[in-house]
Amino acid sequence: MPDIAGQTPDPIWTAMRAEAWSEEERDPLLRKFLKETILSSRRLEEALSLHLSSKLGTEHVYAMMLRALFDQAFEASPAIGKAIRSDLQAIRDRDPASRGFLAPFLYFKGFHALQSYRVAHWLWSQQRQLLAVHLQNRISEVFGVDIHPAARIGCGILFDHATGVVIGETAVVEDNVSMLHAVTLGGTGKETGDRHPKVRQGVLIGAGASILGNIEIGAGAKIAASSVVLDPVPSHCTVAGVPARIVGRGATEAPALEMDQQFPHENIDGGGI
User: Fold this and answer.
1) Four-way CATH pick for 151-273: 1.10.3720.10, 2.40.30.10, 2.160.10.10, 2.60.120.430
2) Taking CA atoms, which of 28, 150, 212, 226 is between 20 and 30 Å from 194?
3) What pTM was computed for the model?
4) Contact of 269 with 246, CB cutoff 8 Å
């Protein structure tokens, strides 16, 4: 499959372009879209800035202005490019609905929201805070995901379905975390300052779970769907309920990588978290 000559090898971009060439032949209805979005671009970042800006532009902040802004962020912060690829690989590895890189890149709003957040976070770090909040607002309107640009989010993140995810200003999400739709990493409504959860590596958070307050969710923990977590969770423990309590201990180091949301029904210690 043709590729752009003279570029540093990029296995994910190469695989994505190969998928696009194949799909272009298979379905002519997508030919123009794939050509303009993928096949005419030289790099993954170039394709992504074009794609996201077309979704997030408004009559006041045009798509072309946003595209230049995304390009600026990607150029100034190579770490964003590494995170983009790590997030795509996480989707490919963990989401059974994903059979390649092309469909998540083009259509998965969790991926779109996360990469747009990364640009908003870069803007926040550059003291361009009002523009960062503008982008946060557009991400929420377009993708249904509300991430404060000051939040700190690592690499290898999967937002599965993503609708209704809310992540507060002082939240931290470390590498290789997976969360489903309607997850809230919020405050309790009473504190100011550092008031949001700290989610460590390898955590799996089920759909509809709310984790509230400046509490730590230890590495490799598992949060059951619809739980309300108000207290710290030890590493490699499974919690469930309202309020959440420990119901088991993990069989793997990083349940986020396995995406196994089952847990034992018995309470192993008879108590709360």
Assistant:
1) 2.160.10.10
2) 226
3) 0.93
4) yes
